[in-house]
Structures are given as structure tokens and as C-alpha cells.
Amino acid sequence: MPKPSKKLTMPVIKIQNLVVSADLHATIDLYALSDNVKAVDYEPEQFPGAIFRIQDPKSVLIIFKNGKMICTGAKTEPEIKRVLDYVSKILSRYVIKSND
Q1: Contact 91, 50 (CB under 8 A)
Q2: pTM (two decimals)
Q3: pLDDT digit string (tens) for 43-69?
């Protein structure tokens, strides 16, 4: 039988990273996006999503042609909202069609 150990204290919790999914309900031209936005990398032979790196707040979005996105790196809900607002404005220029 294992020997009883010391009682554990409540752990300190610190949010390091939030992962959020979002859907723009639109088809996005990832080729044009990556050609015109320096912060976007798109290599469809390697991976079907475009990688959009944001500096402030430091975060990364993976954007798919069908308008679905995954955002990671932000630490608070207001940061996530700021990133998604910023990216949505840029992506609105690359909408091929609305997916209602």
C-alpha cells in the first residue's frame, strides 16, 4: 500500500492560450489572400489552410477556403475579439461568395 503523501494545495491557474473556432460563412480566395497579405502563408500542397500570423496580440489563425477558422495564441476573450475583428476586415476583400 502506498505511503500517504503531503496534502496538495490548490494549483495556481494561469490561462496561457485560448483556442477558438469561427465561421465566416463565406468562400475565401486563399491564393489571393496569401499573395497580397505578407503575414499569410499558404501552401495547399502541404496543408489546406492558410496560416495568418498576427503580431498584436500575438496569435495565429488557420483559415480554410470554406471560411472556417481556428484562432490560437490569444490569452483573453477581448484579445480574441480584437483578432477576429481585424482578420474579418481583411478577409472581406477576399470573399468569393457567401455561404448562407
Answers
A1: no
A2: 0.83
A3: 999 999 999 999 999 999 999 999 999
The answer to whether 94 and 69 have CB atoms below 8 angstroms apart is no
Q: Which amino acid is at 81?
A: K
The answer to the question of residue 28 being in a domain is yes
Q: Do residues 84 and 23 touch, judged by C-beta distance below 8 A?
A: no
What residue numbers bound the domain in which 49 lies? 23-98
Average pLDDT over residues 66-87: 94
**Burial profile 41-67: b = 16 or more Cβ within 10 angstroms, e = fewer:** ebeeeeeebbebebeeeebebbbbbeb
Residue 96's φ and ψ, nearest 5 degrees, are -85, -45
- The residues, any chain, with a CB within 8 Å of residue 72's CB and separated by 6 or more, are 17, 18, 19, 20, 59, 60, 61
Structurally, the chain folds into a number of domains equal to 1
Residue 85 lies in a domain: yes
Distance CA 34, CA 39 (A): 8
Average pLDDT estimate for 12-41: 94
